[in-house]
Write a structure and sequence with these properties.
CATH superfamily: Phosphatidic acid phosphatase type 2/haloperoxidase
Mean pLDDT: 92
Low-confidence stretches: 1-6
CATH architecture: Up-down Bundle
Distance between the termini: 31 Å
Helix content: 55-70%
Structural class: mainly alpha
Number of domains: 1
Number of helices: 12
CATH topology: Vanadium-containing Chloroperoxidase, domain 1
Order of helices and strands: HHHHHHHHHHHH
Shape: globular
Radius of gyration: 19 Å
Number of strands: 0
């Protein structure tokens, strides 16, 4: 009998798609139902009363583009396709974020309520570019490429659900620091999943395990780590975490460059 390959496990991708749809519906319901303001007040007030100072900042810089690159950098060693997917997804994420902010012109909480009436940790953002949250897009981009391109996560829906849950906690920090409405975060989650799905789709169709590909990815990571080390993220309380992330990424990028230059490593893993 001819060999029949096993059907791919589609539970994790289906979970990601369902999460994106529910996030979009929830964002619309909050914005149209007048629930954004009270929910923002509850979450932001929780940060002011009950959370250690600096924790919201640590969570929120996970959505910075350069930090996100460092989160994916360790996969250079075992599965560079994950990092490549994040890179391919980034332009789509940036375009979707720009389009939403430009088209809607939604005032941020500090602009609508006044900076003195909310808890702000880090920089005060008071423009009319609240929707969607770019940090939430980035965080969910990372979670999505991990789920779709990292087989141990893709094949275990529980791990996929945990990744989405962790992304939601990190993205919610945008409300904790006073930068976004809850619907901005949920809308950003949907757009981040769309972006990550595109990046994963592209990366699956390109060679990423060759010596040359890993060397190029290593150069990109090393450049991003250097940029992160000197970047002002707007959240000084998170600077130690920022430097740790830059160091980890720098080590991984340099390792990939050196390894790619060694003879006999035309194909890793």
């Amino acid at each position: 009998m001819p060999f029949t390959p096993p059907h791919p496990d589609l539970r994790a991708p289906a979970l990601v798609a369902a999460f994106a749809a529910l996030s979009a519906l929830a964002a619309l319901a909050l914005a149209d139902g007048g629930l954004d303001h009270p929910l923002f007040a509850a979450i932001n007030g929780f940060a002011a009363r009950d959370l250690p100072r600096g924790l919201p900042s640590d969570l929120t810089i996970l959505g910075h583009g350069l930090v996100a690159m460092m989160l994916l950098a360790p996969f250079l060693a075992s599965n560079p396709r994950v990092l490549a997917a994040g890179i391919f997804a980034a332009p789509v994420a940036g375009l979707l974020s720009w389009a939403g902010k430009t088209a809607l012109g939604r005032p941020r909480p500090a602009a609508a309520l006044g900076a003195n009436h909310l808890y702000i940790e880090g920089q005060t953002l008071a423009g009319h570019n609240s929707f969607p949250s770019g940090h939430a897009i980035t965080i969910f981009l990372v979670a999505t490429v991990l789920i779709l391109t990292c087989r141990p996560i893709r094949n275990r829906p529980i791990l996929a659900g945990a990744a989405l849950g962790a992304a939601l906690v990190a993205a919610s920090s945008r409300v904790l620091v006073g930068a976004h409405w809850p619907s901005d975060v949920l809308g950003g989650a949907t757009l981040g999943i769309i972006s990550g799905g595109f990046g994963a789709w592209v990366s699956m169709r390109l060679p990423t395990h060759s010596r040359r590909a890993r060397g190029v990815l290593g150069v990109v990571v090393l450049a991003c780590s250097a940029a992160l080390a000197i970047t002002n993220t707007g959240y000084p309380l998170a600077q130690p975490l920022q430097w740790i992330a830059a160091a980890v990424g720098g080590v991984m990028g340099l390792w990939a460059i050196v390894r790619s230059a060694c003879p006999g490593n035309a194909q890793w893993g």
